[in-house]
Amino acid sequence: MGVSVAYSHVVGVWRSFFPTVSLEQIINLHKRFKQLSGNEDTISRENLDSIPALATNPIRKQIIEAFFDKRNQRQDEVGSFHEIGFEQFLMVMSHFRPPTLKTTEEEREVMRREKLRFLFNMHDTDSDGTITLDEYRKVVEELLSKSGAIGLEAAKAIADAAMLEVASTNVPHMEPDEFYEGITFEHFEQILKGLEMESRMHIRFLDVNTTTMHCGK
């Protein structure tokens, strides 16, 4: 299948990050991108918000915002895009690729750190490098209260207790009058240290099989 000059550029950029990804895989992702965008060159938040499989997801807002977060584009910029093109869409999708048998331990560690950073960014909504109590509380409230099994006040109390536990673990010698500013990325890594992340992040609501997105040498 032939591709345009602009599309060939995207393929080149994508393969510079992931040498073993096939042209067929990129084309399949491009087809899904076009479906979501209504055959336009860019995708908006409204395009993703209309996906039926996301309608009942308790963190739908955070998932959608992750696609437009400049921090997830492997750049040092902060802020968000109003719309994203296919190349930016691919860069976000790269965070969901699983390891393969050829993936080295060093590459696995890089993948794990990238996935953790992606999840951290979803919680750090003001991009200040810290997940504050308010940010953490909002996520927990949405996860628990929208399930219908627990009220908002109870969810808030659970979030506050969880953050207090995190504070006591990360800063064990805090004085009673000290204020815990929040979870840094280093703290976040420690909290999830025992969790196998490399193959656990999926994106099935886009009807894209990320297990076919290989990486490595």
From TrEMBL:
Any single Pfam family the record assigns to this protein: EF-hand_6
GO annotation terms (biological process): cell differentiation
PROSITE patterns given in the database record: EF_HAND_1, EF_HAND_2
GO cellular component: cytoplasm; lamellipodium; nucleus; ruffle membrane
Main location: other
InterPro entries found in the cross-reference section: CHP3, EF-hand-dom_pair, EF_Hand_1_Ca_BS, EF_hand_dom
Compartments where found: Cell projection, Lamellipodium; Cell projection, Ruffle membrane; Cytoplasm; Membrane
Membrane topology: Lipid-anchor
This protein's record includes keyword Nucleus: yes
Gene3D superfamilies associated with the record: EF-hand
Keywords linked to the UniProt accession: Calcium, Cell membrane, Cell projection, Cytoplasm, Differentiation, Lipoprotein, Membrane, Metal-binding, Myristate, Nucleus, Protein kinase inhibitor
Residues covered by the EF-hand domain: 111-146
Signal peptide: none
One MF term in the entry's GO annotations: protein kinase inhibitor activity
The family this protein is said to belong to: Belongs to the calcineurin regulatory subunit family. CHP subfamily.
Name of the protein this chain belongs to: Calcineurin B homologous protein 3
Naturally occurring in which organism (per UniProt): Myripristis murdjan
Organism ancestry: Eukaryota, Metazoa, Chordata, Craniata, Vertebrata
